[in-house]
Write a structure and sequence with these properties.
This protein is an alpha/beta fold and 293 residues long. It is 46% helix and 12% strand.
Length: 293
Amino acid sequence: MISSAKTRTAVVTGVSTGIGRAIAASLIADGWHVFGSVRKEVDAETASAALGDSFTPLLFDVTDDASIKAAAEFVGAELGGRTLSGLVNNAGIAVAGPARYLSIDDVKKQFDVNVYGVIRVTQAFLPLLGAEPSVKGRPGKIVNMSSVAGKIASPFYGPYAMSKHALEALSDVLRRELMMHGIDVITIGPGAVKTPIWDKGGEVDAAAYENTEYAEALQGVQDMLKSVGESGVEASAVGELVRDVLKADRPAPRHAILNDKLTLWTLPRLLPTRMLDGVLADRFGVKKKPDRS
């Protein structure tokens, strides 16, 4: 059980590596106790060794209702009737590929993790955040980790962009519905963040589409994404932003964090749609075929 009633507490999903680990580290450095989800025992051991005594691992998958419910019950017992200060829905995956050839099963998997997973986890922990009257203390906050893709959909990242657009809508709905409980919901949308996934060209598997009309473009995308990752923001910067949002009395409902914000975020949202179509198609190597008439 958390010994001090003054200790702020948070549940962060997906703390094995990358952004989730950085969020946990930032909160712990600020005096929080973090319950962090991982899917494997070995990851629980690694995270515990790296984060110290103010970290408690939770073993669950966001697609598994039973394990999520068990984790929520465990955290509730640890809190001893006090509210959870924050829930950070960070766990996610990215499914990539041209929409013409996508497997519906892959699209379902994308939504099962990035959208349904957030709903499962949020529903399980809402009572601890203050939606249940028997839990005492200041209501907590929910931070949903979206992406630039939650507002701007790029070629070959259809499933991911679709899931993040859905998450943006879900966040707006939750923020408005949970006002009656005093629970705030904030969305954070990073651009490229320096993580090992970029070393492999992101999640794009060009070989899977080598016999399609998109083969050349996808190979170029892999090369482009490697350089994008090198210029991305540090994961620690995202962790610090999450910490600041959770501590703020009335934070803005959405935050974008990325390098070259003017070029990659502000201007694309101001451009006419057809113009943005052309910019993104050119950037991702989608070339219009000559008129065959």
